[in-house]
Design goal:
The chain has 9 helices and 9 strands. The chain is an alpha/beta fold and 248 residues long. It folds into 2 domains: 151 residues, 3-Layer(aba) Sandwich (Rossmann fold); 86 residues, SIR2/SIRT2 'Small Domain' (2-Layer Sandwich), CATH 3.30.1600.10. A 6-stranded parallel beta sheet has the order 3-2-1-7-8-9, with helices on both faces. The longest helix has 20 residues. The structure holds nicotinamide-adenine-dinucleotide and zinc ion (ZN). Zinc ion binds next to loops.
């Protein structure tokens, strides 16, 4: 049996699938990942949360980067990989998609908000660090375009940041709780397009496996969790998932 047929069989047998996705599922939509050649890290070192808080220049740099790459994210559309997962959710076989991605493409593929768990937030809008109020990026850009003026919260004057979780920033409690609950229920966990090096996020597949779920990894490159997986497929995500799920 080929690896893809084996994945198809595991999906067929499962009743409570949970997906754990990373930047790799969105590269086929034109959004670069972090760690591949040409990925974002070959250009920028990430700005840590403490540095963002400590310096206006870091905040400016962070908005500069955001608006330099925002066009790509706005234009991006879900690809075959996202659509395959949406199909499984629609069929009631997939409980949830736990994602490290911040691009909103799982929701855009038709998965309802309550089944997408964003561990690292969302970069398609901004939020106040004090009162959490949401602000749209178009509004932030208008302000920033005037001589790189830093935007302030309309409600409380607090610091605005894209609604993402930076290195050094606390994980979102609600998303972590939901991810725990989904992981505890999973009978099949599928990691898709993640290098599995960012913790605590990468701990969820390990937890699922410990609790008795079957574990599959679909990723172009090997990962540190390959040895605990029941099946590892080193191939392109869109083609693999569309064959395994039977959609294009
Ligand atoms: P990563 O960049 O560390 O790893 C991505 C993995 O996907 C790599 O191992 C790569 O080999 C694989 N991959 C890429 N394209 C693939 C394809 N078409 N088919 C098969 N495999 C493919 O990403 P990560 O593990 O998600 O960690 C990076 C962090 O960066 C995340 O925490 C996330 O918040 C953030 N990030 C998000 C986005 C996004 O939202 N699209 C993009 C870049 C970074
Ligand atoms: Zn505020």
């Amino acid at each position: 049996m080929s690896d893809v047929d084996e994945l198809k069989r595991l999906i067929g047998e499962a009743k409570r699938i949970v997906a754990f996705t990373g930047a790799g599922i969105s590269t086929e939509s034109g959004i670069p990942d972090f760690r591949s050649p040409g990925g974002i890290w070959t250009k920028y070192r990430p700005i840590e949360f403490q540095d963002f808080l400590a310096s206006e220049e870091m905040r400016r740099e962070s908005w500069r980067r955001k608006f330099a790459t925002d066009e790509t994210m706005r234009k991006a559309e879900p690809n075959a990989g996202h659509r395959a997962l949406a199909r499984l959710v629609g069929e009631g076989k997939m409980l949830a998609v736990i994602t490290q991605n911040i691009d909103g493409l799982h929701q855009a593929s038709g998965i309802p908000d309550d089944k997408v768990i964003e561990l690292h937030g969302n970069s398609t809008y901004a939020a106040c660090l004090d009162c959490k109020r949401r602000h749209e990026l178009d509004w932030v850009k208008q302000i920033f375009d005037d001589n790189e003026t830093l935007p302030k919260c309309m409600a409380c004057g607090g610091i605005l940041k894209t609604a993402t979780i930076s290195f050094g920033q606390a994980m979102p409690e609600d998303a972590m709780d939901r991810a725990h609950d989904a992981t505890a229920e999973a009978d099949l966990m599928i990691t898709i397009g993640s290098s599995l090096v960012v913790y605590p996020a990468a701990g969820f597949p390990v937890m699922a496996k410990r609790l008795g779920a079957r574990y599959v990894i679909v990723n172009r490159e090997p990962t540190d969790q390959d040895e605990i997986a029941d099946l590892v497929i080193n191939a392109e995500i869109g083609a693999t998932l569309s064959k395994a799920v039977g959609v294009n």
